[in-house]
Design goal:
2 domains, Ubiquitin-like (UB roll), 31% helix, globular, 8-stranded mixed beta sheet, 11 helices
Length: 397
């Protein structure tokens, strides 16, 4: 019996809750994830120069022992004046008081419309009831509390056996994101929990590597948010031998963490605003990892490529032009391109059944595979098609 656990509450010792405090016109807009035991924390954050106050606050406290993270949706708490940073600090202190944990052990996150004042009084008034709702089954309400234009909840959990120890550790996570998805790290928020005993350096290393191959490889609209944040909390409840970067168990844990991040990243890309298709771009034959990532992200983010895929138009030229616009090393005479498994270019156009390919491009997932002909490195990026609905969503207030 798991008492309704799932997502961020799957690992032992974590509870969550979500509620409405009146920021949005309807639905949940406030969430909390809590561990009764202090957690080691790691994080990756937006590189946007207009960082939200919650991002600045959490970055400054990520090295503390952490008990909770409070998240609001509907208001980005960004570009709205220094008094809203002080409001963020006050809310974190108030949450810590209600939880009965040390000041500085509560992190903050926000997502929503940029520029408006943080409705701190509404959030503060809702905190006592929110804390009172904490439970293992609260993960579903917590996910609802962080959503904005998302059409689907995004959460995952898994167990992994630490190498040679016959000891399982659990990882759970929830994420949100549908628009402003082009992290260099979308708005993109992800909160990960684990009951592993792990050093902070090992946790940060594993998270940074996982983010590089997942959230940093998705794009919906090439716009980087002020609020991007991925935070991982480890409370040690599994009582496994401590995982360090040189431990045999580190690669196992890091692989499981990457799987969680990749699956959530794909969920975000497939739920892009107005999207009807997930686009997966597979780059091989690259000179370096950086080149492979550069080309994959360029193609996935190209509006010309995205709109062509949306219209089921097999325009190889747009894909090749996007790849060639990067600084990646490639041998253009050896470049190969296939769409949905059908070769369309091999140093020159390849004859193919266009009617069949158009039909395949109508599928829910479209795979574009390009070999740069220069090396052995590879990367995958994910994006979505560009539709009229995306424009409609983003021209409204």
């Amino acid at each position: 019996m798991n008492n309704g656990r799932g997502g961020v509450t799957w690992p032992d010792g974590f509870t969550a809750a979500g509620t409405s405090c009146g920021i949005k016109a309807g639905g949940h807009d406030l969430a909390i994830v809590y561990s009764r035991e202090p957690c080691v924390a790691a994080g990756c954050f937006t590189t946007n120069q207009f960082k939200a106050h919650s991002v600045v606050y959490t970055r400054r406290r990520i090295r503390n022992a952490v008990h909770a993270i409070v998240v609001n949706s509907g208001n980005a708490n960004a570009c709205n004046g220094p008094e809203n940073y002080r409001a963020t600090e006050d809310l974190a202190v108030r949450a810590a008081e209600i939880l009965g944990v040390p000041p500085g052990s509560v992190l903050m996150a926000s997502t929503g419309i940029i520029g408006g004042p943080l409705p701190a009084e509404r959030i503060a008034a809702a905190l006592p009831a929110l804390v009172g709702m904490l439970s293992p089954a609260g993960h579903e309400d917590a996910v609802r509390g962080i959503m904005t234009t998302d059409t689907k909840k995004k959460e995952i959990h898994l167990d992994t056996e630490i190498a040679g120890r016959r000891k399982q550790v659990a990882i759970g996570a929830m994420a949100k994101g549908a628009g402003m998805i082009c992290p260099t790290m979308a708005t993109m928020l992800c909160f990960i929990t684990t009951d592993a005993v792990i050093s902070r350096d090992a946790l940060q290393s594993a998270l940074s590597a996982a983010v590089a191959d997942s959230f940093n490889m998705i794009t919906v609209d090439n716009d980087m948010s002020t609020n991007d944040m991925v935070v991982c909390l480890a409370n040690g409840a599994a009582r496994n031998p401590r995982i360090r970067k040189d431990s045999d168990s580190y690669p196992v844990f890091a692989s499981a963490l990457k799987r969680v991040c990749v699956e959530l990243a794909v969920m975000i890309a497939s739920d892009g605003e107005g999207a009807t298709k997930l686009i997966r771009v597979e780059v091989t034959g690259a000179w370096s990892d950086a080149d492979a990532r550069r080309v994959a992200r360029k193609i996935a983010g190209s509006n010309l490529c995205k709109s062509a895929i949306g219209g089921c138009w097999p325009n190889a030229g747009r894909i090749l032009a996007a790849a060639g616009a990067t600084s990646a090393k490639m041998d253009v005479s050896r470049v190969k391109l296939s769409m949905c498994g059908i070769p369309v270019y091999d140093g020159r156009p390849v004859p193919h059944d266009e009617a069949k390919l158009r039909k395949l491009l109508g599928q829910r997932e479209v795979v574009l595979a390009i070999d740069l002909g220069r090396g052995t490195r590879a990367a995958t990026a994910w994006g979505c098609d560009l539709t009229e609905e995306y424009v409609a969503i983003n021209r409204e207030e």
